[in-house]
């Protein structure tokens, strides 16, 4: 399906999922392309970002940091969008902007939430390594995790959008990096392409034993985005004064109720106390005002010098966003998951292959 | 039983407890009073400190921050001790010192772990509000908890040695203080004597609902020393950016195995993330070098001006230390639990009554 100049396709929330979302929880609607009023900008979506936090916004009660998506409303999401028409002084037809247009072909904006992108060789990176997910990795590892040279950093979902950047920043700060990922292909990629010291497949047995062997001096920083069995394997290995930045817990996003026992909360408390561990949740929205400029400067330099590689998994076509999202929640992507919504961009030359 | 000049009574660990310790887990032995060698000091115990951490040292595998007590060895513990004989240049007969002589009448020391106390009106306070437990409250609330004026602070075990000081420091920093304690008498003491804004009896039903009503704007700092049901009531009320210093989890010290489900760890992770909560365990031993002088100066001023009241629960006689310890683990004390080991001190004039 191609983008039309007269029809706005949008993916709306058709039903609140129980557990892993299904395709029937989404519905594609077609509406006329809206017309901008005074002060408004009409945007056409070129790239749509798919991120685990969106699963939380599908619940009736939102996660607190953002409003839940209403039934029948379009799914929300960050986009790279083209200005098609503007009745706003600061934005002009043809401008490329970072926007929050959601899962649809067209959207109106008042301009307040737009960031001009200028010329970028690979604009979709503004949704990933050069944008929200890269920034999450940067703040989480450096500000919350306070990694030091010589320390051991364990990174969950290490081939994902955030994890891959966390691991690479940790390496260039002089840390030893042990990744955890689902599947042998991902682990090979983590070691051979991303250059991490080790990577463990959490689907194989004896994760706790293998992790202990891979971290002979224990773990100084655990970058948490997963929860579940991975955290249980990590907890006994956390060293005195360890830091645990928590940016997600994807293993539990699809749970409808508290999981069965035993209750591991007391064990966590005991570990926090005995080993003076600091765990801190963070939401990247809080940090743009103070840290985004430093991130943008550092990351641009690291990417330009090849010290950080940014990988993308690209789905083609807005109509395939629901399946790509469901796949991502099951860890089927390698790197940042985006959707090329404008057809001309789906197979642009020079893109990196995704596994 | 009185202290003898020739016999050293000591309370040794007779058996490792399962759950709450019993009197049969302890045994009193009598040995000759040892003689100091060159460089050594002979100490006679005047006051023995009883603290929840000691329960952890009764396990075969220690908590990490201190060695477990060996079977047949004397129980460890902080003491206020008198120098009886000295072959050490810095200490002299008659000096009163803060020591780690353990649960016994006499002990030898190399002097390295002694702190001269000078003249104190109430030397036992060096074990409590002016010592380790007061320092724990100070560092936990100010450094880890970073309380601000106008915030709501919830304090578990608020009539205990640490909690009562946490609450009083929070009040003098301009916070609203809601205590949690076991029993109506303690709650009355917390409000009427210690001056807290409210106190909830965790033994009464509907703790979660009552806590929500007592904290209409949520909780900014939760000072954790208990765990269990209290923490479960607190968690949903923690505000954005809340801090949770963890100095203990006494509700779980007597557990032999992981408690039954549901597993509340994922719920904790979700809360940490969504509300950017920082939880941090700390062990007060880590902070003496950097913060003890500031604590000593501030606390001396607060106590002298009456802004902080220090209450003690006193047991009389070393032979009663095991029962007093068991009682303390069940929350039967009000304020810091000490044992007067030197008989002359058991009922000194001017002591505050304990409930």
Radius of gyration of chain A: 21 Å
CATH superfamily of the largest domain in chain A: NAD(P)-binding Rossmann-like Domain
Count all strands of chain A and give the number: 15
H-E order of chain A? EEEHEEEEHEHEHEHEHEHEHEHE
SS class of chain A: alpha/beta
Structure annotation, total helices of chain A: 9
Terminal residue distance of chain A: 24 Å
Seen as an oligomer or otherwise, the chain set is homodimer
Note the beta-strand portion of chain A: 15-25%
The major sheet of chain A is characterized as: 7 strands, mixed
Percent of residues in helices of chain A comes to 25-40%
Structural write-up:
- The structure is a homodimer of 355-residue chains.
- The first copy, chain A, has 355 residues and is α/β, with parallel strands linked by helices.
- The first copy, chain A, has two domains: 7-124 and 311-345, Quinone Oxidoreductase, Chain A, domain 1, CATH 3.90.180.10; 132-285, Rossmann fold, CATH 3.40.50.720.
- In chain A, 25% of the residues lie in helices and 23% in strands.
- Chain A contains nine helices and 15 strands.
- In chain A, the strands form three sheets. In chain A, strands 3, 4, 5, 6, 7, 14 and 15 form a seven-stranded mixed beta sheet that branches. Chain A has a six-stranded parallel beta sheet with strand order 10-9-8-11-12-13, with helices on both faces.
- In chain A, α4 (184-193) links the parallel β9 and β10.
- The longest helix of chain A has 17 residues, at 288-304.
- The radius of gyration of chain A is 21 Å and the shape is globular.
- The model of chain A is unreliable at 344-355 (pLDDT under 50).
- At the A-B interface, α7 and β13 of A face α7 and β13 of B.
- β13 of chain A pairs antiparallel with β13 (278-281) of chain B.
- Chains A, B: InterPro entries: ADH-like_C (IPR013149), ADH_N_2 (IPR041694), ER (IPR020843), GroES-like_sf (IPR011032), MDR_fam (IPR045010), NAD(P)-bd_dom_sf (IPR036291).
- Chains A, B: Pfam families: ADH_N_2, ADH_zinc_N.
- Chains A, B: This is NADP-dependent oxidoreductase.
- Chains A, B: It comes from Uliginosibacterium silvisoli.
